[in-house]
Specification:
It contains seven helices and no strands.
Length: 250
């Protein structure tokens, strides 16, 4: 009788263990499914943010092509060093935006850290080009001051410079928001360079207005020297990348 009593109890214990194991497996499967869903949602959100960054960079590319073409064309026609330097700076910004579009494309296809070394090298090349531009402006301005060469006023150059201020402000602010959401130092660097470009446009507008009002030959070379500080700052931001942008945020 004792054996008959113990045997059913043992079967119940085995049955309870099997039920507990099944429940544990179900809970584990449910947790894994939720984890995979959360990871998928994060990946989808990041992809959506990257697509927004793409749109901003395409707008930047289009605007920089217009800005560079008009500024360099008007600078050459009016013999204006200020406008020419502004246009060359726009060309370098155009190259920087192109590199960032490539960088975002690589991240979208291959992952976040795939092209960081190439990106860093490209940023340093951009910084070196900006330092070279600063040296060119200083040398050219010195020559124009020595030879007392002025420049003609350019209305199209003034218009494109005025339009550059709100355009760069809008693009830079949106890029900073996206850079923070993505944790992208490349996008943040591009945004800070855009802010500097906006201040550079302020200087160009002031120089052209002063040239129109005063009409003195020395306005253009002196104004071009004023933009050197912004060009060097922009070059430093491109060269130092993330560290410089962190200091800018502080």
């Amino acid at each position: 009788m004792a054996k008959l009593f113990i045997a059913p109890t043992t079967r119940c214990r085995h049955k309870n263990r099997e039920q507990t194991t099944d429940e544990s497996v179900k809970i584990h499967d449910l947790s894994s499914t939720r984890g995979m869903t959360a990871t998928s949602e994060i990946a989808n959100d990041r992809a959506a943010l990257i697509r927004q960054a793409f749109r901003l960079e395409y707008i930047t590319l289009a605007w920089m092509m217009i800005e560079a073409t008009v500024a360099i064309g008007c600078g050459i026609a009016a013999d204006s060093l200020t406008l020419t330097a502004f246009g060359i700076d726009s060309l370098i910004e155009l190259a920087s935006a192109s590199v960032l579009v490539w960088r975002l494309t690589v991240e979208l296809r291959h992952g976040q850290n795939f092209a960081e070394e190439a990106e860093r090298a490209a940023s340093r090349i951009g910084g070196a080009l900006l330092f070279a531009l600063a040296a060119y402006v200083v040398a050219s301005a010195g020559w124009k001051l020595w030879m007392q060469q002025g420049a003609d006023f350019s209305l199209p150059g003034l218009i494109v410079s005025v339009l550059a201020i709100p355009t760069m402000y809008f693009l830079s602010r949106r890029k900073l928001v996206l850079a923070k959401a993505l944790g992208s130092s490349a996008l943040r660097t591009d945004a800070v360079e855009g802010i500097t470009c906006g201040w550079l446009a302020f200087v160009v507008v002031g120089a052209l207005v002063a040239q129109l009002v005063v009409g003195a030959w020395w306005v253009d070379p002196l104004a071009s020297l004023a933009i050197v500080w912004f060009v060097i700052r922009e070059g430093r931001e491109a060269w130092e990348g993330e560290d410089c942008c962190d200091q800018h945020r502080k």
